[in-house]
Amino acid sequence: KVMSSEMESQVEDDSREEWAKTSEEIKSDMNSSSEVGEPDVTPVDFD
């Protein structure tokens, strides 16, 4: 049980780091999009 709770907290830390990276990427995407003046749409639609 001790090991599993340690693993869980490690996973939580990793998830927070991943989420932070993702939200930073989203922010920079939004910033670059608004600089260009593009509408707020997902780039996937244009692939």
In short:
This protein has 47 residues and is an all-alpha fold. The protein has one helix at residues 2-36.
SSE blueprint and pairings:
Layout: H1 2-36
Task: Characterise this structure.
- The structure is a single chain.
- The protein starts with a helix and ends in an 11-residue tail after the last helix.
- It has 47 residues and is an all-alpha fold.
- The longest helix has 35 residues.
- It contains 1 helix and no strands.
- The model has no long low-confidence stretch (mean pLDDT 75).
Low-confidence regions: none
Beta fraction = under 5%
Global outline: rod-shaped
Tally of individual helices: 1
Give the distance, in angstroms, between the N- and C-terminal Cα atoms: 47 Å
What is the typical, i.e. mean, pLDDT? 75
List keywords for this structure.
mainly alpha, 47 residues, 0% strand, 1 helix, rod-shaped
